[in-house]
Amino acid sequence: EVQLQASGGGLVQAGGSLRLSCTASGFTFDGYAIGWFRQAPGKEREGVSCISGSDDSDDNTEYASSVKGRFTIFRDEAENTMYLQMNSLRSEDTAVYYCAADPTGLSNEYPYWGEGTLVTVSS
Questions:
Q1: Beta bridge partners of residue 52, listed in sequence order
Q2: What is the DSSP letter of 104?
């Protein structure tokens, strides 16, 4: 059974850091596109960051403008886990964060989703 399990959310003060994790079971991330998304209260879900394909170079990595320079996406294939390192957190980063994976590597559509993990940033 294909599953993604996200964790690492919590309550943090503005300016603080959190690292979100997302562990896969039933498949490996090799060759997959991976992404992090978030949905704030009363807002639509938005993309935060993604890596296309299996080459984790900067050329294949994208960030939303609102998080660029503060967040870092990466994966550890040995652990079959993807991460989102979030620094300099702001109150507007408060949201439920979701991890996702796309076996085509294209980051166009994500068939695999984890359950969300709540991040709350207090000002």
A1: none
A2: T
> In this structure, which amino acid lies at residue 1?
E
Tell me how far CA of residue 31 lies from CA of 24, 54, 93, 94, 106, in angstroms: 13, 4, 29, 30, 10
Digit-coded pLDDT (tens) for 89-123: 999 999 999 999 999 888 888 999 999 999 999 99
DSSP string, 25-88: ESS--TT-EEEEEEE-TTS--EEEEEE-SS--SGGGEEE-TTTTTTEEEEEETTTTEEEEEE-S
Tell me what the mean pLDDT of segment 29-39 comes to. Answer: 94
Spatial separation of the C-alpha atoms in residues 118 and 123, rounded to whole Å:
16
Q: How far apart are CA 107 and CA 101, in angstroms?
A: 8
